[in-house]
Amino acid sequence: MAAVVRLAVPGEAERLDAALEAPDGVYGLLLSRQTSGECALLVAEVGGRPVGAGLLRWAPRDAVVRERFGDLPEISNLQVHPDEQGQGHGTALVRAACARAAAGGHRRVGIGVGDDNPDAARLYLRLGFA
Ligand SMILES: CC(C)(COP(=O)(O)OP(=O)(O)OC[C@H]1O[C@@H](n2cnc3c(N)ncnc32)[C@H](O)[C@@H]1OP(=O)(O)O)[C@@H](O)C(=O)NCCC(=O)NCCS
Question: Which residues line ligand 1 (CB under 6 A)?
């Protein structure tokens, strides 16, 4: 079933920690960053149940990236529950983040992936990231 992607809302941090099996407090921290305007926290849901989440930061975290690319928005903290991977939810989250960035007037979006994560890198390459 295709996921619906929406913005996280105040008060749901604990529910996200539990549903996505994140350590306690992770989504509270990410939600506080959304509240401060630093980023948008996107939640992918299937039938009202969170199956994944990701951040769209309005500026890169890393000073080297910022120096090279300026204040381009950056996708980070992408996570789909292990039982739900491979069903298009990660793709839906990345597309929703890109649409949100475009709506904010941004023509480029950054994404970072470790050399030790070729599976995720393959997804980003397929979605058009270089
Ligand atoms: C990377 C991740 C967000 C992708 O979400 P997803 O819902 O599985 O992705 P989709 O179903 O939209 O796309 C599947 C693609 O994702 C990639 N992928 C990465 N890890 C995967 C996994 N464990 N299972 C399935 N696909 C995975 C593959 O490229 C796959 O493409 P393929 O069908 O050609 O193999 C998810 O697998 C995940 O949470 N992984 C662990 C955390 C992580 O690595 N986050 C990214 C940090 S940069």
Answer: 78-80, 85-91, 113, 117, 119-120, 122-123
What are the tens digits of pLDDT across the range 81-101?
999 999 999 999 999 999 999
Burial class (CB in 10 A: 0-12, 13-18, 19+), 41: buried
Closest ligand 1 atom to Cα of 79? 39
Q: Domains (ranges, CATH) in the chain? A: 4-126 (3.40.630.30)
Cβ contact 50:43 at 8 Å? yes
| CA-nearest residue, atom 25 of ligand 1 | 86
Q: Is the pLDDT of residue 71 over 90?
A: no
pLDDT bucket at 45, cuts 50 / 70 / 90: very high
Name the closest-CA residue to atom 29, ligand 1.
Answer: 123
